[in-house]
Amino acid sequence: MSSIHDLSYEHQMVIEAMKSQLIIALVRRLGIVEMPVAEIDSTGSSNLTMKAVDGVFTTEVVDKKR
């Protein structure tokens, strides 16, 4: 898996925009989402992977490699 930092600036900006769109799409699908701040703060050991293939967007949370 490559890092976002390996991409050009233009591609990094596209990924950043997709992350915002992903959050909007997920909240639309799930409805109101409430979670403790501690749960959000505890995501430091995880990465969000994303890909789009044949019109299907796939995202997954994976552990960071140490």
Could you please describe the fold and organization of this structure?
The chain has 66 residues and is α+β, with helices and mostly antiparallel strands. It is built from 2 helices and 2 strands.
Quick recap:
The chain is built from two helices and two strands, in the order H-H-E-E. It is an alpha+beta fold. A two-stranded antiparallel sheet has the order 1-2.
Compile the SSE list and pairings.
Elements: H1 9-30, H2 37-41, E1 46-53, E2 56-63
Antiparallel strand pairs: 1-2
User: Count of helical segments?
Assistant: 2
Order of strands in the sheet with the most strands? 1-2
In which range does the helix fraction lie?
40-55%
| Strand runs, count | 2
List descriptors.
single chain, 66 residues, alpha+beta, two-stranded antiparallel ribbon, 2 helices, 24% strand, globular
